[in-house]
Amino acid sequence: MVSDTYHDELGPEMIVEVYDPSTSMHGFVVIDNTALGPGKGGIRMTPSVNKDEVFKLARAMTYKCSLAGLPFGGAKSGIIANPKEMSRAEKDAVIKAFARALKPISPSLYVAAPDISTAEHEMRVYAETNGSMKSCTGKPADMGGIPHELGSTGFGVFHAALVAVKHLGLDVRKLSFAVEGFGNVGWFAAKHLSEAGARLIAVSDSRGVMYNPRGIDFEKLARVKKEQGTVTGYDDGEVLEGKRIIEVDADILVTAAIPDLVTEDNKNLVKARIIVEGSNIPMTPGVEEYLHKKGVLVVPDFVANAGGVISSYVEYIGGTPKDMFRMVEEKIVKNTSEVLEKAKQAGVKPRDAAMNIAVERIKKAMKQRSERVVKGGSERKK
Questions:
Q1: CATH number of the domain enclosing 167
Q2: Which of 85, 159, 263, 270 has the fewest other C-beta atoms within 10 Å?
Q3: Is 111 a domain residue?
Q4: Does residue 361 belong to any structural domain of this protein?
Q5: What is the CATH number for 49?
Q6: In angstroms, rounded to a whole number, what is the distance separating the alpha carbons of residues 311 and 304?
Q7: What is the pTM of this model?
Q8: What is d(CA 82, CA 284) in angstroms, rounded to the nearest whole number?
Q9: What is the SS3 assignment for 306?
Q10: At 199, is the secondary structure helix, strand, or coil?
Q11: Number of domains in the chain
């Protein structure tokens, strides 16, 4: 059972626990809130996944979908299993059992997606077993999926950064930037910011930081990363220890990998004027508050990195990659602008403004749903 600490006026609405003796499948879904639409969230498959963990992720999806302006609620699911100890056939059997068990609520109340240890193949199995292409997103392209490799999240982070730059009255072509993490999100954020005229001066991966205040050529960096497996192979600059990415004197810092990057211990080392959170939970709200008071503009994670869930929605409605790029840009620009403007007007940090907007939208939808139920009951009595 989810701890009572997490029960509040928003949810969770439903926790469904399922078992299948023949495959030893043991899983659960936490549907946090469906006022805006069916709960959206990935299937996490690990030996230690639990309901509290899944609830926190479901609640994050509730906020993210609301702020993104999508007709999705928040949900998440978990399967207690160790994929490293399973054959492909065994894993497929577990996914099939999970999909069969959730058929009464998916896709009506729950729309699945990839998460830890689940990807395109598992979404194919899930959708085929369920019988509805709307039961999950993240499917292979031949099933109408929009590939992760197109970089929807990084593209959205880039547009969030542009909005932040404009909000401060700056010219992106005169700014430098650093990117923490050169995976899918960081790669595309760096690509688009470089093409927009900003100067990339630092980038990190698991092997360290490549730093060059004169500028790093993105195309050359991308080749080095592909050939050598690390950005530290770039031959023009200084290699620094990984977490020192936050210390470089860049105007913009894009976080795109690990959680808790900026902590109470190193927050005073941040030199960036703008931080765009492409990664999830790169710092605590308390650290964000410190940076806000210091004059750093922080665009929160569930505002900046919503490109992925927006892409999922485009897939859900049968859209194309072209539709995805258009919608990601449109929604990220609109919502980031609204958050930063409201934060400025209220004199609060952007995360507070974003939460207020998200919760206000959810409560409004909950009220409208309640009124429809009451009205429907009254009409039936007549």
A1: 3.40.50.720
A2: 85
A3: yes
A4: no
A5: 3.40.50.10860
A6: 14
A7: 0.93
A8: 30
A9: coil
A10: strand
A11: 2
Co-location of 95 and 25 in the same domain: yes
Do residue 315 and residue 331 come from a single domain?
A: yes
Do 94 and 198 lie in one domain? The reply is: no
Contact 2, 12 (CB under 8 A): yes
382 in any annotated domain: no
* Distance in angstroms (rounded) separating the CA atoms of residues 13 and 27: 17
Q: For residue 105, what are the contacts with CB-CB under 8 A and spacing of at least 6?
A: 14, 16, 29, 31
For residue 148, what pLDDT is reported? 87
Structure confidence at residue 5 (pLDDT)? 54
218: in domain: yes
- Residue 92 phi, psi dihedral angles, 5° rounding: -60, -40
Q: Identify the pLDDT of residue 372.
A: 85
In this predicted structure, what is the pLDDT of residue 382?
57
Question: What does the block give as tokens for 186?
Answer: 């960081």
DSSP string, 135-146: GBSS--GGGT--
Residue spans of alpha helices (H) in the chain? 51-68, 88-102, 120-130, 152-167, 184-195, 218-228, 285-294, 301-304, 307-316, 321-346, 350-381
Residue 267, classed as helix, strand or coil, is helix
223 and 351 housed in the same domain: yes
pLDDT of residue 380: 61
Q: How many C-beta neighbours within 10 Å does residue 379 have?
A: 8
Taking 50 as the pLDDT cut, the residues of the chain under it are: none
Q: Which domain holds residue 320?
A: 152-356
In this structure, the strands spanning 252-255 and 297-299 are unpaired
Using DSSP's 3-state secondary structure scheme, residue 9 falls into coil
Alpha-carbon distances, residue 163 vs 312, 330, 341, 374 (angstroms): 23, 12, 11, 42
Q: Which of 249, 195, 248, 251 is nearest to 218 (CA)?
A: 195
Quick check: is 76 catalytic? yes
Residues 370 and 365: their CA atoms lie apart, in Å, by 9
Type of residue found at 296:
V
Options 64, 76, 91, 139, the catalytic residue: 76
Q: What is the pLDDT of residue 374?
A: 73
Looking at residue 6, its pLDDT comes to: 63
